[in-house]
Amino acid sequence: MKARFSYLSGAVVAVAAVALTVPLTVRSGAAAQSTSTPAPAKGVAKGDARLIAGKQVFDKWCATCHSSAPSSPGTIALAAKYEGEMPGVLEDRTDLTPEVVSMFVRSGISIMAPFRKTEITDAQLGDLSAYLSAPIGKRNAMRPKAKPSGARK
C-alpha cells in the first residue's frame, strides 16, 4: 500500500510541476476585456469603438476561415453554398443580424466548431455581431485598402 501511495504522490507532484511551468492563457470575464480602446481607423468616427472592437474580434477569431483570401475554407464553403446569390466573404454580407451571428458563433455549423465564452466573451460577441451587422460602408472604412499591383510594401 505504501508503494502505491508513493506512486500517486509522485504523479501529483509531476502534474503540479507541469502546471506551474505552463502559462495560463485562458481568460474570461472582465480580465479578458481590453482596457484600452484602439484608435479609430481613418474615416471611422470615434463613436464607432464597438465596431472597431468587433473588427478586432473578427480578425482574431474569424478571418482565418472567413476572410477574402482565396484559401479561406469558410468563405469557399459559403460561396459554393450560395452559388453567387450572396457573397461568401462574411464582411461583404448585408443580411447578417446580431442574432444570426451569435447563433452561429455559439452553436457552430458543419465543420465550424462553436466558440465558448472563454474564447469569445459575450461582450466580444456583441461587438462582433455589431460589426458584421453594421452598414457595409462603415465596415469597409475599417478594412485595409487593397494595394495596386506592383505597389511596394
Report on the structure:
With 153 residues, the chain is mostly helical. The protein has a domain of 68 residues: Cytochrome Bc1 Complex, Chain D, domain 2, CATH 1.10.760. It is 50% helix and 0% strand. The chain has six helices and no strands. α2 crosses α5 and α4 crosses α5. The longest helix is centred in the N-terminal third of the chain and has 20 residues. The protein is globular and about 35 Å long. About 23% of the residues have low confidence.
Short summary:
With 153 residues, the protein is mainly α. The chain contains six helices and no strands.
Low-confidence runs: 4-38
CATH topology of the domain at 50-64 and 90-142: Cytochrome Bc1 Complex, Chain D, domain 2
Which sheet architecture does the biggest sheet show?
none
Shape: globular
Q: Using the CA coordinates, give the radius of gyration.
A: 21 Å
